[in-house]
Design a protein that fits this description.
By secondary structure, the protein is an alpha/beta fold. Helices cover about 45% and strands about 15% of the residues. It folds into 2 domains: about 1-160 and about 325-385, Periplasmic binding protein-like II (D-Maltodextrin-Binding Protein, domain 2, 3-Layer(aba) Sandwich), CATH 3.40.190.10; about 165-320 and about 395-440, 3-Layer(aba) Sandwich (D-Maltodextrin-Binding Protein, domain 2), CATH 3.40.190.10. The chain is built from 18 helices and 12 strands. α8 (about 185-195) packs parallel to α10 (about 240-255) and α17 (about 400-415) runs antiparallel to α18 (about 420-440). The longest helix has 26 residues, at about 1-25. The protein is globular. It holds the Pfam family SBP_bac_1.
Length: about 450
């Protein structure tokens, strides 16, 4: 028994300290591969050991699943991987963590929806100690803002798996016919949308999300680019002049140049309208570019352009966020093995392969490598990389009750679309949002 306990303590020590020293000494290559003599990269074999991992339905998860046999063969570690729909995953994790379960050891998470809630309850294992001394992992290779998305209480709560930035899609042919340049500012976007708005001809000047809750993430870049934000210094700031300017711009574009029934338009409907050639401009997340560009049979497939989010008074400040991250259960009893899996899944080697499968990763080096951008349009690559440099690390209110906050803020846009006073609506929403923040702060 004493021998077993001693061995367990040695394993923990190796995973927390010796692993990192081993890595820097060359037990792994820069590509994240363990050496032949040390398949686990942990100073011991992992054969016979296992961890559990919960995944959501996403391209990132599919890439990991397809590469998993290689990881298991290399390390000897068995990964019991289970997939759920996004909502099922969130519910399953909440129930198990609340019950104090040590399973799953590793899990996918939507950081901007769940990190505050999970972190508040102490369910997230901080990963700082695992990356701090692991030079071969090259933590600095991740962009600053995507790490901001996965940070809670000043600690790294998860590692990024996939990223999104808000970008502008446009019709090259329509701009060329009208002799218009690609809009670089909000004023230019609004002016071009006005010129190209032709409902009788079946083309609207602009399309974007209009559903109250769904629109908030896309509204965010309008706020940032006009100098606003949802919160400033922990206080609600949705009624500042800067925020109102950004909201007003979004309302104007949708109300004057958008399609009818905009209240019912989510990202699927907006992307569908644009890909069918029914809108001149469309702004949304970069991750859905393949849908927005249409199929090879689409009449606009060769006429879709991709541009930076237009600049407002504060410049071009699109969101640049971690859409999916990989976290570790604070209650896991197999943290050393769990980190090995996270390290592998977010290594340069796997991010490269995952990105080649169409999943936009978070490592700058992969975006700078021609092999890492195979299959992405050239315009897309340059826009994503520039957005990573100037972007903002959140695309929604930074509170635990994100859905409720989105409803409150989205209602300002709805009131504007109904010709109600935007400033009055923003003042009301700011009071409600502040009340929500205050309630959370006293819990």
């Amino acid at each position: 028994m004493k021998h077993t306990l001693s061995r367990n303590r040695r394993a923990v020590l190796i995973s927390g300290i010796t692993l990192l020293a081993c890595l820097t000494a060359g037990c792994r290559g820069d590509d994240g591969k363990p050496s032949e003599s040390d398949p686990g990269g942990m100073g011991e074999t992992l054969t016979g050991r296992s961890i559990t991992a919960y995944m959501g339905n996403s391209p990132a998860a599919e890439a990991i699943r397809s590469l998993l046999p290689e990881f298991e063969a290399r390390t000897g570690l068995k990964v019991d991987l289970t997939s759920f729909t996004n909502e099922q995953l969130s519910q399953k994790l909440s129930v198990q963590f609340a019950a104090g379960s040590s399973s799953p050891d590793v899990f996918m998470t939507r950081p901007l929806e769940e990190v505050k809630s999970f972190g508040r309850h102490g369910w997230l294992q901080p990963l700082d100690k695992y990356v701090a001394n692991d030079s071969n992992y090259d933590f600095a290779d991740f962009s600053r803002t995507v790490i901001e998305s996965v940070t809670y209480g000043g600690k790294i709560a998860a590692m990024p798996l996939s990223t999104e930035q808000q970008i502008l899609f446009y019709r090259k042919d329509l701009l060329a016919q009208a002799g218009l340049p690609v809009p670089q500012t909000m004023d230019e976007l609004e002016a071009a949308a006005k010129v190209l708005h032709d409902p009788a001809g079946g083309v609207f000047g602009f399309v974007a999300r209009g559903q109250r809750n769904a629109l908030v993430t896309q509204l965010s870049s309008f706020l940032y680019s006009e100098g606003g934000d949802f919160q400033v210094g922990g206080k609600a700031a949705i009624n500042t002049p800067e925020a109102i300017r950004g909201i007003s711009r979004y309302v104007t574009l949708l109300k004057r140049y958008g399609p009818p029934g905009v209240f019912n338009i989510g990202w699927q409907q907006a992307a569908g309208l644009f890909s069918q050639g029914k809108a001149a401009f469309y702004t949304d997340a970069s991750a859905i570019y393949s849908i927005a560009m249409g199929s090879n049979q689409s009449s606009i497939a060769d006429n879709v352009g991709i541009a930076m989010f237009p600049a407002g008074q504060a410049g071009s400040k699109p969101f640049n966020v971690t859409a999916w991250g990989l976290g570790m259960n604070a209650g896991s009893t197999r943290k050393d093995a769990a980190w090995l899996f996270i390290r592998w899944a977010t290594s340069k080697e796997v991010v490269m392969k995952s990105q080649q499968m169409g999943n936009p990763g978070a490592r700058t080096s992969v975006w700078n490598d021609p092999q890492g951008v195979t299959g992405f349009p050239s315009e897309y690559i340059s826009v994503v990389m520039q957005s990573m440099r100037v972007g903002v690390g959140h695309d929604r209110p930074q509170v635990v009750q994100v859905g409720q906050a989105r409803d409150i803020i989205g209602d300002i846009v709805i009131q504007g679309l109904l010709d109600e006073d935007i400033t009055a609506a923003a003042d009301k929403a700011n009071r409600e949002f502040q009340a929500l923040i205050d309630r959370e702060n006293v819990k």
